[in-house]
Amino acid sequence: MNDFQREFVRALFDPDAGGPLAGQPGFQVYRNTVMAGCVDALQANFPTVCQFVGPDWFRGAARCHVQLHPPEQPALVHYGKEFPDFLAGFEPAAAMPWLADLARADLMHLEALFSADEDPLPASRVASLGPDQLAGARLRPHPSARWAWFDAAPIATLFQRHHAAREAGADPDLGDVLWQAEGLLLVCDGSAVRSWAVERPAIVFLSACAARQTLADAAGAALTVEPDADLAPMMRLLLQAGAFAGLDDGLSQFAATSACAALPENPT
Q: Phi/psi of residue 196, each to 5°?
């Protein structure tokens, strides 16, 4: 970015910026149009946060965010990656410490929606493995799968209630929500992003799988956070949700290694 471009961006997003550009006739109109477009994009990308706090509060916070974090790409469909962290330090949101996590849930939804498309792993593929194969197998999470554990609030329930209310064109019913920690899992099935409230062992298990740990190690990691967890229904839920896209049972790699070992060292 050259000096003119930097000055242009500063004049565009800093209302207190001076200089010849800011003083040009019509520049304020252009600045307002760009600002409105960025705020509209944030409102579209973080609908749960906007629904929770109301459009007026949200758009005021969004304008502050845009001034601090202007978009770096011309397409605004992914704009707002810094928004959750911004809300975490935004003084008017201090009385709502869970708001940043609600924004993280919206961001997870956005990422899942625009992720790569791939068929989910059939449960029958896992069921076909013997005990020894199963222990050494590695599950690959689906490209659209997003998961997180939220200690401060029932983010999964809040996210799901607000989403259902938007679909129905109604206000969310939050009267019976239990204020407790929750895990959230999101997976896109190709046409829509679906959500599940999950326990912490499932979150730990998915993270272990993403780190390429074997199923035995991933199960062990899940049990470290909840020793009495029943992993069988957890596994059924994750497979039914389409949270995985691939499975490495180690046999293909073993076969390839054996075939290479059988080759002559100096073929002629």
A: -140, 140
DSSP 91-119: GGGTT-TTHHHHHHHHHHHHHHHTSPP-P
Q: State pLDDT tens for residues 116-144.
A: 999 999 999 999 999 889 999 999 999 99
Tell me the per-residue pLDDT of 33-66, one tens digit each, with 9 for 90 and over.
778 999 999 999 999 999 999 999 999 999 999 9
Query: Do 187 and 77 touch, CB atoms closer than 8 A?
Result: no
The span from the CA of 245 to the CA of 165, in Å, is 30
The answer to whether residues 141 and 244 touch, using CB atoms and an 8 Å cutoff, is: yes
**Displacement of CA 181 from its chain's centroid (Å):** 18
Kindly report the CA angle at 97 between 81 and 34, in degrees rounded to 5? 35
Residue in this structure with the two tokens 């607000």, named with its chain if needed: 162
Contacts of residue 116, defined as CB under 8 A and 6 or more positions apart, other chains included, come to 143, 144
